[in-house]
Structures are given as C-alpha cells and as structure tokens.
What we know:
By secondary structure, the protein is α+β, with helices and mostly antiparallel strands. Helix content is 38%, strand content 15%. The longest helix has 31 residues, at 355-385. The model is unreliable at 100-105, 471-475 and 484-503 (pLDDT under 50).
Amino acid sequence: xxxxxxxxxxxxxxxxxxxxxxxxxxxxxxxxxxxxxxxxxxxxxxxxxxxxxxxxxxxxxxxxxxxxxxxxxxxxxxxxxxxxxxxxxxxxxxxxxxxxxxxxxxxxxxxxxxxxxxxxxxxxxxxxxxxxxxxxxxxxxxxxxxxxxxxxxxxxxxxxxxxxxxxxxxxxxxxxxxxxxxxxxxxxxxxxxxxxxxxxxxxxxxxxxxxxxxxxxxxxxxxxxxxxxxxxxxxxxxxxxxxxxxxxxxxxxxxxxxxxxxxxxxxxxxxxxxxxxxxxxxxxxxxxxxxxxxxxxxxxxxxxxxxxxxxxxxxxxxxxxxxxxxxxxxxxxxxxxxxxxxxxxxxxxxxxxxxxxxxxxxxxxxxxxxxxxxxxxxxxxxxxxxxxxxxxxxxxxxxxxxxxxxxxxxxxxxxxxxxxxxxxxxxxxxxxxxxxxxxxxxxxxxxxxxxxxxxxxxxxxxxxxxxxxxxxxxxxxxxxxxxxxxxxxxxxxxxxxxxxxxx
Length: 503
C-alpha cells in the first residue's frame, strides 16, 4: 500500500445549505472512505498485523513470522512525550488585552482548568485523541453545550460536553481556495446497517440518513463544533514514513528466528548406513535423543552428519540492531543504549541519544496541536456562555475568560542540563533581559508563567541591584556547582562572621 498521509477533503461550493448538502456530503464521504482504508491499515499495523513480504523456499516447514513491536514503541513514545503531561491553560504574559491582572494568577483561567480537568477529564480525552493523531496523522474533537436541570443547587463540575471522535467516523470539509476555509464538520454512526450523518456548518445542523435530510436546526454556537487536529503538514502518522524499513526489519528478525530453529531441527545425511526394519519391513529411523548405531552390510565405512549451511548469528544480529536504530533515528525517537562509562555533558548526551532531535520534532508537532487547541478553546468558551446562571453565576471569573487571554503550556522532559540552563538565565538577567522571557526560554520550570509571577518581585529586585552595581556577589553557577557553597543566598544569610566579596 502506498501511504502519503490522509488527504484533505475539499468542496468547490461557496456555501453549504439545504439545497446542496446531500451532493457535497456524498462527494466528501467517498474521499473519506479512502482515508478510512489507510487509517485502518495503520491501526492494524501498529497492533502487529504486519504482512511479511517474502516467500520461504528453503525448509518451508519451518516458517516463523516475526512482527515488529517498533510501531507500537514509536507510538507510545510520541504519546508519552507529546501528550503525557496535561496541556494546561496559562495566562498570556502582560498583554492585558481584556484588563486582566497579569501580576496575579488569573482565577478565571484557573477555574477553567479545573472544569476541564475534573469535569471533563480532558487529559484522558487528549490521550484518546492522541492515539489517532500519532497513528493516523489526524484526530477529531467535538464540543457541544450542556443541558442542565431546571433546579440545581451548586455549580456543577462539568459545564460543557467534550467528545473525542473516532477519526474513522468523522471528517472536515474545506473550501477549495487559498484560505481553505472550514465549510462543514461531519460525524456519523451506523444505524441498522445505514450511515447516519450529523453535519455542521457555521450556522446550521443537519441530520441525514439514506440520502435524506431528517432534521435541520440552527447551530447555536455559530461555529463548526468539530475540530480536526493534524500531526504534521502532510498528515502522516508517526511511523508511517518508515513502514518499508519496518517490513525489512521483520524479514531480518524472521530469518534469524528461522535460522536458529533450523539449526535445532537439522536435516541429517547418511552414507553407507543400513537401518533395521520392523516386522512390517518399515525402516526404524532414530528419534531425537536416541543413539545411532551405524553399520553397513557391504563392509564400507558408515557416515552420518548434519546437512546444513553455515550460520553466522552475529552478523544478522548487527544488521537487526542497525536497522532498528536507523528507524528510531528517522522517527526522532531517542535510542536506549548502555553507558560506556566516563563523563559527558547533558547537551552531548542529549545529542548522542536523540533527545535533542526528539524535542525539535515535538516543537513542530506542538505548533500543529496548539492550532487545534486554540479552536477547541474558542468552542468551549462559546458553549460556556450558554450555561444558565443557575448553573454558573453571571459574575463567575470563568465567564470573563477570553481566548486571547490564554496560552497553552506543554510540559515535556526538560530537566536535563540544568546547570547550563541556570547559567543561561543568570547571565542574561545580569544584562537586564526581561525575566518573563527568560523564564520561558530557560526551559527550567514546568509552568514558566506561574513561576515568573511567583518570583517577579525578588527577581526584579536582584536584577535592579546588579545592574545598578550594588550587588555584592556574582551568582553565576559553575559547571560542577563548586562555587555555590560560598555564594549561596541561604548560607550568606547564616554566615554572619565573614563578608562576601564580588568575584
């Protein structure tokens, strides 16, 4: 199968309405079916259904077929690294677009995080969606307003309905033009063997079955409530580009297993050997573990030996190891290896093992994910506006949150090479670079925005004293940390007997 990423579905119409939606849907669905065929192939491939593309001619009775676990390994790493930690909403810097106070934690954003975390279990739903994104290259999310009972005594944990859609049963239709405007979002199910489609435009909602419009209502959100996520620009899965190489790895591993098996189940060659016969005249062939007593009726020397070809297991194992390492490297997955001893800097280790490449790849995917998260947040905020005051008071800070007030924080493994990162922060702080920007760029803090807000008064005071020349100590951290005994703020406060000199 030739896999080139999931194709986008386009329409040439400028507006989708009751008069043309059936035609647009039929054309779009036919293109979607090809995507479904490819997605199912990738899902099965990741689960181990990998066709072994070779025929075994020699000893066909021994035919071990090994399916590589590498696609699953690559997928699990991508899910863990890119989606393992919750994607949190954080306050956007000092912009104060809507008069929010940037010096304190925004209670509306904090409250919205709690709603998404506790009420909607958004981290679990992100994991569900990531399964499709990483394997198939695309994922789908749907947002709908929630219905509340007429009487309610407390603010509910859940304020909006968030669904992770099976991407085999959902798709987006785009306008065939420069802007590629989203024209229609579609989700469908099977009912009595027939497809039942729910189609959304910006203004309308259609329920369609068997080529007929069953329902036609207003879209109260005023925006297509389905979000289509993309893993990359070409919409490929995380291991999709290396399927041919994985197939070759499967052949290597299968042949190695067959070689080992054939050595333990060898064919034997005999010369000038007479085997005894039973009472029926059938030759009594030796069984495994039996002694073989050789003799010849004509007095010639009897011989017996295994009939096999030479086998070099080391070369095959090296080929398997190299092929596996190449696939992981090309998929930007760090390679696990045994330490050879000796010292190495964090940067060198990360470069050698592939962590730096993994982070660069994750940053690219993050930009694609953030695009989807931004639209998802817009839908969530619109759905919250429909929540009645009996469920959410009108003065609730959550209602005051705007999309432009929020940034998305992606937490990944960044605890390596901390000494160099701390030195980076300190040195740039000494020349007056904004601490807010330094906290983000240093990659030290899980939540750099909150860390900056908590540290801002002291950081700016220290920075001001150093720039004005009133500081009494250089806070640079040496590579081995050896200078910190003498220049520790804690020890400085305890050590009353000596004065500190600037270095």
